[in-house]
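Supplementary Methods S3. Complex input for the nicotinamide-adenine-dinucleotide-bound model.
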Amino acid sequence: MKELSHFIAGQIVKGTSGRFGDVFNPATGEVQAKVALASRAEMRKAVDAALKVFPEWAAVNPQRRARVMFNFKSLVEKNMDQLARMLSDEHGKVLADARGDVQRGLEVIEFSCGIPHLQKGEYTEGAGPGIDIYSMRQPLGVVAGITPFNFPAMIPMWMFGVAIACGNCFINKPSEKDPSVPLRLAELMMEAGAPAGVLQVVNGDKEAVDAILEDPDIKAVSFVGSTAIAEYVYSRGTSHGKRVQAMGGAKNHAIIMPDADLDQVTNELIGAGYGSAGERCMAISVAVPVGEKTADALVKKLKPRVEALRVGIPTDPESDYGPMVTAQQRDKVKDYIEMGVKEGAELVVDGRGFKMQGYDKGFYLGGSLFDRVTPNMKTYQEEIFGPVLQIARAKDFDEAISLPSNHTYGNGVAIFTRDGDAAREFAAKVNVGMVGINIPIPVPLAYHTFGGWKRSAFGDVNQHGTEGVRFWTKIKTVTQRWPKGGVRENVDFNIPTMR
Ligand code: NAD
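Predicted complex, serialized as structure tokens:
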């Protein structure tokens, strides 16, 4: 059986804890590899390697660090097919979508190539007589990223792209469900010219995460995953004095105004609701048609499209989406569907009976559609994270705004309309972090920032963009005096002021 190890101090290092996790091939249901689960001592080895190289890496001038990022970008592009296959093999998403996963991460690497400009400080000349003030953004040191299964290329690159370009040394603790791509990215980063120890991968579970959260030499932690763990990572990490940003789960609504083009909306909802088997934190999981007429027409259009979804093996270009990541994840979604029925929602399409011919042990699940879902239902309140779209009907625009605004989660939201006024008002008023106007999955590009509100994110600073540079650096401000005529002789006992 293939063994997936760690990448520490520039080398593949076998796990020594004696503990392993199963890595499945979701298409066939077979265990395809064992991944080493690190002990605290193994995590510490990575921290030591990072501490050793940090002074050297932080002293490399920004332009040279940018060149490493440029090299890395072209290496990832050269290896795109291999990375996409690896990713799809362990995650189950279709190949074209796996390429998108790598590509969205690469965009952050492209952004990070601009680090000489991004890391510049500010300067005030003549703030007082002979006095200038300037600031600099310095790297934090050894930092870590704990990443989820659903974007094993993009999310590590969101984090380490900016962190490394800023001069930090980064340890990635990827999801134990699909660790191969993060391991390969670390090898490519070294090939690109980053010294050994600048990007390391330590595989593991809670033990490795706790080792990160409690290690005094790890200065900042970025986390992306489910809300319960995000909250845990945030509180434990900050109580150990670290800077932490922790992105959690979601329940993204799409508001459909009566004037929207329903054919267009149907296409968008099918793609955003069922793409990647709904295993995206920005998937649309609740459609909110405004008015009964809009709702009836929408359900009529959606039903045959959900029934016609082509669930298939990830390597088949005809597949709309592939299997779910694990049997456990698939069964959890099935349980939610059962619960939805019991709660009184109307199950318009039931995907539970879907069987994939020739792959009966694979983790496939057909698409499901619920109508008449209401805010008191548990299946509305919680994240399902599967190929299930729920329709929650709203009587008017105000109710449509209030649904996502009052929901516990606040990651993304979309509105479909031809009315600029309504869209503008919606964007200004809705209590959610990322808004799409006629865009179903409003994941901002790399030079903007990514982050939800409410229980979708803990901490104040978003991923990538200039916020990312802020997160991965600390600002130092220097006030200097070079007076004409030498040293002043008088002593001033008062707080210095500028009059
Ligand atoms: P998860 O929370 O199960 O795992 C995320 C990471 O935490 C993994 O590295 C995992 O090993 C680790 N982990 C799991 N259990 C732990 C525990 N008890 N203690 C310490 N660490 C633990 O999430 P997942 O299933 O890998 O990913 C799906 C979730 O991530 C969904 O909720 C999705 O909405 C969310 N997500 C959010 C965003 C965002 O930006 N807001 C992006 C992608 C995914």
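The CA atoms of residues 35 and 251 lie 31 Å apart. The pocket of nicotinamide-adenine-dinucleotide is lined by residues 146-151, 173, 175-176, 205-206, 209, 224-226, 229, 247-250, 281, 383, 385, 411, 452, 456 (CB under 6 Å).
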